[in-house]
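Limitations
The structure tokens in this dataset are predictions for the assembled complex, not deposited experimental models. Users should treat interface geometry with appropriate caution, especially where small molecules or nucleic acid strands are included. An illustrative entry is reproduced here so readers can see what is and is not provided.
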Amino acid sequence: MNLPIYLDNNATTPMDPRVLDAMMPYFTQKFGNAASRNHPFGWVAEEAVDYAREQVAKLIGASEKEIIFTSGATESDNLAIKGVFEMYKEKGNHIITSVTEHKAVLDACKHVEKLGGRVTYLPVKEDGLIDLELLEQSMTSDTILVSIMYGNNEIGVIQPIKEISAIAHKYGALFMTDAVQAVGKIPVNVITDGIDLLALSAHKIYGPKGVGALYVRRKGPRVKVTAQMDGGGHERGMRSGTLNVPGIVGLGKACELCQQEMESEAKRLSALRDKLQSSLLELEESYVNGNTEHRLPHVANISFKYVEGEGLMMAMKDLAVSSGSACTSASLEPSYVLKSLGLSDDLAHSSIRFGLGRFTTEEEVNYAIEVTKKSVLHLRELSPLWEMFKEGVDLSKIEWAEH
Amino acid sequence: MAYSDKVIDHYTNPRNVGTLDKSSHKVGTGLVGAPECGDVMRLQIQVDDNNMITDAKFKTFGCGSAIASSSLATEWLKGKSIDDAMKIDNMDIVEELALPPVKIHCSVLAEDAIKAAINDFRVKNGMAAIESEKVHH
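Predicted assembly:
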């Protein structure tokens, strides 16, 4: 077992060597521009891109013509939200999203607001799921788009996508989903899920960084987005720019591998995750954040009360995890996702996200359990809050000097 | 963000972790920060009849830099008079631990904890609390 151990697979994943093998020829021998229509170098590149388009489409139940390659999910989210707003603003100016979305969605929505759009940010319930009744109540005749993520990056909660898309469609709106964390991890199907636009990224599924895709439905209805990048009219005019052929080949291969291995991987990872989670919950005053029934198989977000997240991560120096603690960001604000679940700030500060992945072994999980337990106990020995809790002091009754 | 060697040293081997009897009139206790902010420090001093600090203990809920700042503070407090201890400046802690700008608040909290502990002792022993007029950097 090599240290440190990587358990932050929601942030990014290592590239699968099989993906790298598929990409390698496209850097050197097969370097052509996929838009070069008049010589073999271009044809070879175009063929590779077409094949990758099929691989990506197949994973999400789409047709290859519906896949627009981008630089990653942030670009896909921006293209979908701003592009739909620009294309459909005559029809209406209202977009609905939720407070636990990724910043790429939230900030694209804020941009739309500056352009005169109106955005509803739906709250979530304590378990991180959105309230379908509230969604329906928020729909208006001006609503052109509902954008709700498939699986959450911090807590792994899976939203009821079929029900959400049905509500959006009932009121004539399009449904878009940021499915970065879900694609390749659980079955995602744009037809049965009723998805009109979907953002995905290669580096979260063992592919390279800097490449992603946006699915844009072509039939029932035919969806159009206004390009956000002007240029040579690549990707059916929706995204100009010379195609990143090696990256796209890598994304395609990554999708193919996920398709082949998803079922067994999901079982293996959820068993490991459950073991990690149940072992860590043996610690007093530890809590899982978010719904545990509708959750991605490889994620567990746990708060260890009376211990601060960044301090804890420092103690677990051989584990690469992440925390909702404010100390990990320059803003000094704890995770907005955890706060939106109604978690008090101190519990948000005490959270650790464990994200397992394809290369996580049982030995590593056992080690992570041991190190985490030891570190939590050690830091509680240092924690005045733990001492007060043990003495029966009601911490909520103390007048803290907020700073 | 990488931690300095001194932060890692204090974090890994924190000095003077523990609890003094807060009901003793020879003990001053400072509890500063708030759980909501992700930092709570409790710093305690044991003071002899000559107003010299003979022992200091801490417990801290917070990040590595907060733990290191309080550990360092206890080291500096021991052997100082309460008047000299009052002069410990947060920027001395920043310098000693090479704290980056986003962690300066940890040193501020440690200074606040020192002053709160001394003032607790002073008030317990019939002296007026000293108001700090310093504006933190």
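Some entries come with short summary sentences. For this one: The two ends of chain A are 43 Å apart (CA to CA).
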